[in-house]
Amino acid sequence: MDVIGIICEYNPFHNGHIYHIKKIKELYKDSLIILVVNGYFLERGEISILSKKTKTEIALEYNVDIVLELPFVYGSQSADKFADAAIKILNNFKVNKIVFGSECNNINELTKIVDTQLNDKEYDIKVKKYLDKGLNYPTAMAKSLDININFNNPNDLLGISYIKAIYKNKYNIEPICIKRTNDYHDLNSNDKIISASNIRNKLNDNIEIKNYLPNALLNKIETIDKNKLFELIKYKVITEKDLSIYLTVDEGIENKLKKVILKVNNIDDLIKKLKTKRYTYNKINRMLIHILIGLLKEDSNLEIDYIHILGFNNNGKNYLNEIKKELVIPIKINRNSKIYEYEIKSSLVYDILTNNNSYEFELKNKPIN
């Protein structure tokens, strides 16, 4: 039996994700699907419009067999850290394949990039040279490689990071890509399958979204209070003596942040004032979330000391019983872990911003089935 790993954020879960799951079942008929899902704060520094509980419930409804948590510590970091943790979690559960969406849909090209990154001694030097010129990481990476891939494509970038994590750790996992059916950057399409960013854009513009995701989710979309978000960040920035201790706060940007935040009245203006070639929207968003939750630089490389099983169906339960003695990373939550501490903090902040009860869900720690 093939055990297939998928890694998603579900912000929100939509028709494209249904297609993803159905395609896996079509390609691997007797497979078991294990999902690693990001929680409240996401890889690009966004705040999820679906709670972790809702993501788990909808994934199980659409034939995912086991749902595992990607903790905030890793899920709010850039692609390589995000991918490395997610792949490590999947490897612990004995997956033999991962299947991810890709704009280029060319696993050989993506693998060539990883080979260059890992084996070309000049590669890191080239990237650093371009970073020192003020370019952001995707642009620096593109200029350092002589391969025809559009580095504005988020799924390809994540795919590269997934493959890199597999190769670096020598995991026995086969990476497989399927063609992404929509353009992440297209915010206007009304096709049946559109990107999550398009759906969020339509929500912001009060455009009906019922054609793009399951009806069961329509009343479970969370509203993010951006005024509260700004006030919380403003409080933290003004009252903290040293912001440089937090992850993603680099190169003296904390000084600019302390000045700018006193001159703006909302989160959007704050981000616009901070943006540079080096500090992209995504990096600024991550930085602000890291400051808000208090993610320290010294905690950015924490070892995964437990894995939280969010939910499973009967097939998933049977599989867990088969492999539980082989698991290297414990599946019992370590309440003394720093990873757990950050997860609790992120749930509390998420509740303030959404008026949700995610903190209660975290404390109960009962898998959905």
Provide a compact summary of the structure.
With 369 residues, this protein is of the alpha/beta class. It is 47% helix and 9% strand. The protein is globular, with a radius of gyration of 20 Å.
Notes on the protein architecture:
- By secondary structure, the protein is an alpha/beta fold.
- Helices cover 47% and strands 9% of the residues.
- α2 (52-61) links the parallel β2 and β3.
- α10 packs across α13 (281-293).
- The chain is globular.
- The model has no long low-confidence stretch (mean pLDDT 93).
Properties at a glance:
single chain; alpha/beta; 6-stranded mixed beta sheet; 16 helices
Our count of helices gives 16
First CA to last CA: what distance?
22 Å
Strand fraction? 5-15%
Using only C-alpha atoms, the radius of gyration works out to 20 Å
Helix/strand structural class: alpha/beta
Q: What can be said about the biggest beta sheet?
A: 6 strands, mixed
- Side by side, the strands of the main sheet go 5-4-1-2-3-6
Number of strands: 6
Average pLDDT score: 93
Helix fraction, binned, reads 40-55%
Low-confidence segments, given as residue ranges, are: none
- H-E order: EHEHEHHEHHHHEHHHHHEHHH
Report the principal-axis shape: globular
